[in-house]
Amino acid sequence: MSVLDSKTPSGPIKDQWTNHKNNINLVNPANKRLIDIIVVGTGLAGGSAAASLAEMGYKVKAFAFQDSPRRAHSIAAQGGINAAKNYQNDGDSVYRLFYDTVKGGDYRARESNVYRLAEVSASIIDQCVAQGVPFAREYGGLLDNRSFGGVLVSRTFYAKGQTGQQLLLGAYSAMNRQIGKGKIKMYNRHEMLELVVVDGKARGIIARDMVTGKLERHSAHAVVIASGGYGNVFFLSTNAMGSNATAAWRIHKKGAYFANPCYTQIHPTCIPRSGDYQSKLTLMSESLRNDGRIWVPKNMEDVEGIRSGKIKPKDLSVDQRDYYLERRYPAFGNLVPRDVASRAAKERCDAGYGVNKTGEAVFLDFASAIERYGKEKAYVLGMHNPTDAEVKDLGKKVIEDKYGNLFQMYQKITDDNPYETPMMIYPAVHYTMGGIWVDYNLMTTIPGCYAAGEANFSDHGANRLGASALMQGLADGYFVLPYTIGDYLSHEIRTGEISTDLPEFVAAEKEVYDRLNTLINIKGTKSVDHFHKELGKVMWDNVGMSRNAAGLKEAGEKIRKIRDEFWKDVLVPGTMNEFNPELEKAARVADFLELGELFAKDALERNESCGGHFREESVELDGEQKGEAKRDDVNYRYVAAWEWTGDPAQAKLHKEELEFKDIELKQRSYK
Predict the structure, then answer these.
(1) What residues contact residue 669 under an 8 Å CB cut-off, 6+ apart?
(2) Which CATH number among 3.40.190.10, 3.40.50.10260, 1.20.58.100, 1.10.10.10 corresponds to the domain 501-630?
(3) Which NCBIfam families does the UniProt entry name for this protein (predicted)?
(4) pTM for this structure?
(5) Which of 87, 302, 495, 602 has the lowest tally of Cβ within 10 angstroms?
């Protein structure tokens, strides 16, 4: 085991980023034209990075497995993006955003990276406004803010429930400008299947044209992986079905350490699954917890009445309801962080109070908000004695203006009107805080290979606060990577064009060909989805919202068996040299089957509870925090970075010890 060097700059944390930029090497504009950079993934992190690097003068090759960068999964983000602008004059600051993010991540993030994230956050908003992103505005024209879980201020900028889409269109327009100028060469419907390393440096990739099936070699002086997270290792998640871990896993197997794979976020406000046939889950924005109150019935007979349809939720009076988040966490109420809210919902449902037929749902109720907003609106309009119906109609209009598209989406999926009856929600796998280990410059343990956005581990610790994924993606792409990559590339200006005829490219292409050819020729009896579902069930049952040593050991054994069976009995129809979605899925699931085992190994190794990683053996046994997650700062205050050795069960652990010089380490409390 080695100790990793994060390359964190010295000096006061508030000056680190400024001093670092002042002292790193630069590439002059004329030399940038001589340098190629590959960007894999064109969501918020990849799209903003590609646009920024091309604008600076580098030659960029961008790869997306979708038919357009506009379809990157960043488009699905709903609720907003954080920035410490203090528009609401409620005491926000760069330090408070930094503090909330480190605390929200349960003190398992690198302080220097998180402070930089908070520091550049305000610039992100200015950049996006300049691009024309239509953020919500107040009556006077100023940008509006709302609050998200885990904080006591309003710092979240939003565009209704479509924030990810609007931000992605901003990055896409910036990319398109560079594509039009020939500075970015765009490869749609191309999937990276291998990293090429020459003399210890990342020098290119092997990609598959997903339309023709042809394998292609692409060279560059640096490679940026911005391919998102690995939540689909659970099969059922809020991610798009195409979201995968292959790019990250391929560079891991070439020498990039994989950090904290067990840190996965369970989002508390998802539409409950409706049956075993379901292939993905739908997220309801966390912004709904601003105004929605979460509850279950207090009495078991009411639970049974609601499940059977004999009782309607609105028939229960307030004193017959258990607003359990408000009861357990009075300081934050419904706005506790996602991991806390998710575990609380699971606890109520495990105790038998789940309100749908499967017993896996709680209510998210807007009746109080509709009444409150309706009375306020009536007063503004001079209606001093409005009827209940008038108050309700006015309140509904306010809620519609704030959350209308989310309510519409919920009704389309469930056929229930959330204006009239509470939404049903339940936790689901959403985001992954773990990912490729990177240093302060976002470089992996492979020189010249970088990771940005959700693909890296660096900013969110063990639990991501709401509205910070978009913040990190754009911070990395617009304001961090364009500076730090120059420090490395300043030594590459005399390298010249890199030939794709080098033996390393030939060997990497053969490796990909052999892997795909093997999958095609197994000619088994079970579909790819069969194995993916089997893996997902083990992951959810044994490595889901709560984990214990016995279950994690069992998960490792079961996943190995599934993987062995996969390579003996998977059926991949069609051929390699054609459009073949089943082959694409098979290659991705093969990677998930290895990642899933490392995930369980990492969770077993970390015998503490922190953030989204909840070990049943590590809970507070008494006092005010009884039953809450118990962190172990003596033994586990480190980043676990795993080195590939040929078998996930034999992965080698490296540690980056975490230092906390600016924030006091203490057990989280939201009570």
Answers:
(1) 624, 625
(2) 1.20.58.100
(3) PRK07573.1 (NF005749), sdhA_Bsu (TIGR01811)
(4) 0.96
(5) 495
